[in-house]
Amino acid sequence: MIGVRHPIGLKTGVGLALALAGALALCTVPSTRALAAGTAAPASAAAAAPAATAVPGWLKITDPPVTGARAIATFGNAGVAVAGTGGKIAVSTNGGATWTLRPLPGGLAVRAVAFSDARHGWAVGPAATIDVTSDGGLTWKRAAPAPAGTFAAVAAATSGQLVCAIDPTSTTIVTATNVATPVWAPEATTLTPFPTAPSIVAGHSASDGDFAAVIGDNGVLITRAADAWTPQTSPYGAGVPATLALAPSPVWGNGVPDLFAIAASDVQASDDEGASFTSLAPPAGGSSGAYLGGPRPQLLVGGKAGLLERYSLTGGAWTTDKGTLTAAIVACAAGPGGVAYALSSDGHVERTLSYGAEPFDLSSSAAALTVGGSVRLTASSSVRAPGALVLQARPAGGAWSTVHTWSWSTSPGTPAAVSERPTSTTQYRLGFVLGGHIDAVSGTVGVAVRSRIAVTRSAYNLHVGDVYRLTGHVYPAQPGRKVTIWTDRGGAWHQVAKGGVVALVHGSSFATRLFGTPVRQGYHLQVRIGANSAHLAAVSVRVRVTIR
Q1: What is the domain partition of the chain in residue ranges?
Q2: What was the pLDDT predicted at 183?
Q3: Alpha-carbon torsion, ordered 427, 432, 435, 437, to 10 deg
Q4: What is the DSSP string of 393-404?
Q5: Calpha distance 426→111 (Å, rounded)
Q6: How many angstroms separate the CA atoms of 101 and 103, rounded?
């Protein structure tokens, strides 16, 4: 005979649904995004499939270990260099995850830094300082012969055939037209000296070869084409500090601007080598900027209090971002595709892989499943960078590990959906590998996993006086845990009073005590296991017992 105790208010399915919902609340991440379509979760789970929480498009990276940081430049796929007043340059080859301090020959303060490719770079400063590197910033040496001047700005064309450094006090621009074996030549102008540090840019124009431009806060703008400098009409008057941004490979006259002048009051754009400008009317304006290339070219503008604005060169609209920095953005640098960096006046740096947009969106086809089932994970992307996208998983109580990898580029396709069969409640997220370092680029999606209880028999047809034992297995094995045995004998579900708690042998198998059958009757039995951090609560099928 099966002994029972009085019901404790647990009606069929109600308490179980509450337990499932409570456990699920502990292992899923709330989201404000739309849910991905997929197979509906069982009614007992009472939950829909969650999408990942948002990850900002800008990520604060490790602070570069330099004092008085004032200039930033990129090189190669994941290289970035930050220069300051301490006579050293902080160099990173993994997108700013880690830095190495590299000494400069003279130990003097650096005013500006620029790279033409993954290996060749220049750092300029006072006392005829032009230091060069040909190994991606690992080592630096003094340019020989060192040109005279107190240099405030430097720019390099991506063609590798033009480097320009300017001495604002004498308005002397020195150039080298072969970065592998540079020979510096002064190109004096007839213009009046720039009162403060000017801004200089250089690029490789398909029509005119290497192009360069310089602007100062004295209302002077000059451009270089066909090896000659030409005065232009500046879009700003005297006393207006401005910086320039230039497409690496400008295409003039096609209706899409390539040269930009950025000031706190306005942003001006030119498609004719600086001969004329048109206002882009930004929401706020800024003090620095960079041209972001790739399939969605944009102008990035940095301003006060960490404000970042992006202008779509194809869509003609502004987008305002608030990144992780709070001080004024004093310099911006663009990497490949949608990669860019912003340097603040207090020496912090943030990075985007996705033009400032949310990098990835991850969603799952189900919020909960029974062990043995599969969940479909779908990603969408705004990242435009060379590297690899990885799907990472973290089971309850475990560490993050990579379960799938896609190669990535500045023009990637859509990542294929991935099916996973988790055996315990698992968190999923997307990471991006840039320069060998992984950063999380999506929020986490939680998939709660329900244990599976298999009973050896689903029905017993017995005679009065027979004895029987209910047996089965729990998947996956859960050492140290117990199952409970429930019956609806008497018209309501309640736990069997004697032998209603059964320990799992090796965490998997269970067998009840011997039950007697003294009278003719019919009822059901059910095996249940409670929820924990690794698994949702689970129930077996109903086992029908008929005694004749």
Answers
A1: 14-20+451-547, 31-55+358-447, 59-285
A2: 80
A3: -20
A4: EEETT---EEEE
A5: 49
A6: 7
**22 φ/ψ angles, rounded to the nearest 5 degrees:** -65, -45
pLDDT tens profile 69-127:
989 999 999 999 999 888 899 999 999 999 999 998 877 788 899 999 999 999 998 77
Q: What is the pTM of this model?
A: 0.83
Query: Do residues 201 and 209 touch, judged by C-beta distance below 8 A?
Result: no
User: What's the gap between Cα 324 and its chain centre?
Assistant: 13
Cα–Cα dist 59/352, whole Å: 6
Assign residue 280 a region (left: φ > 0; alpha: ψ between -120 and 50; beta: otherwise): alpha
Residue carrying structure tokens 């099916």: 419
Cα separation, 151 vs 63, in Å, equals 26
| DSSP H/E element including 201 | strand 199-205
Q: Which residues contact 190 (CB under 8 A, 6 or more apart)?
A: none
Residues 6+ apart with CB under 8 A from 328: 287, 302, 303, 304, 305, 306, 344, 345
Tell me the sheet residues that pair with 402.
392
Structure tokens at 538: 């689970």
CATH class of 59-285: mainly beta
**Among the four given CATH numbers 2.20.130, 1.10.3470, 3.90.320, 1.10.20, the one describing domain 31-55+358-447:** 2.20.130
E strand or H helix that includes residue 18: helix 14-27
Q: Tell me how far apart the alpha carbons of residues 127 and 111 are, in angstroms, rounded to a whole number.
A: 12
Query: Around Cβ 399, how many Cβ atoms within 10 Å?
Result: 8
Mean pLDDT per segment of 10 residues, for the chain of length 548 residues?
35 30 31 27 42 78 93 97 90 97 85 94 84 94 80 88 85 79 75 74 85 90 88 91 94 95 94 96 90 92 94 93 92 96 96 92 95 95 93 96 95 93 97 95 95 98 97 97 96 94 97 96 97 96 98
* Assigned CATH for 14-20+451-547: 2.60.40.10
Give the Cβ contact number of residue 529 at 10 Å.
23
Residue written as tokens 């001495």? 167
Tens digits of residue pLDDT in 167-184: 887 777 888 887 777 788
Q: How do beta strands 185-188 and 172-176 pair?
A: antiparallel
Residues 6+ positions from 54 with CB-CB distance below 8 Å? 32, 33, 358, 443
DSSP 8-state secondary structure symbol assigned to residue 268: E
**404-428 burial code (b ≥16 CB/10 A, e <16):** bebebebebeebeebebebebbbbb
- Strands of the sheet with 360-364, listed across from one edge: 360-364, 375-381, 418-420
Decide: 379 and 403 in contact? Cβ < 8 Å: no
